[in-house]
Amino acid sequence: MRLSVAEGTRLPEMVDCRHELFIAPTLAALTALVEEGVKSGELRHDTATDTPDVLASSIFQIAVWHLMLADRKPIDGRALMEAHISLVMNGLLRRSKRMA
Predict the structure, then answer these.
(1) 10 Å Cβ neighbour count for 27?
(2) Residue 1 has pLDDT above 80, yes or no
(3) Which of these, 19, 25, 44, 77, could form a disulfide with 62 (CB 3.0-4.6 Å)?
(4) Dihedral (C-alpha) 10, 28, 58, 51: value to the nearest 10 degrees?
(5) Predicted TM-score (pTM) of this structure
(6) What are phi and psi of 52, to 5 degrees?
(7) What is the pLDDT of residue 25?
């Protein structure tokens, strides 16, 4: 990832390959999970369910943070990810009529 960030503009084929091998399958899996949740009625359909990137954004943020700042400004990746998941899930949960 460090190489992709540092040299991505000079080596776009490498970035495309990393995207195809790692990022695209992750986003496809998240899309499938969200679609299943919408079909079952557990999740409501909105722009967040159409954009799986938002679900994975904390993972990418943590990775980039560690590449740039790990030795000077440590981050609690687990806490950040749990907070992000809570935020996303509470925003996607279908509200009962009493809660709306």
Answers:
(1) 16
(2) no
(3) 77
(4) 100
(5) 0.67
(6) -65, -20
(7) 92
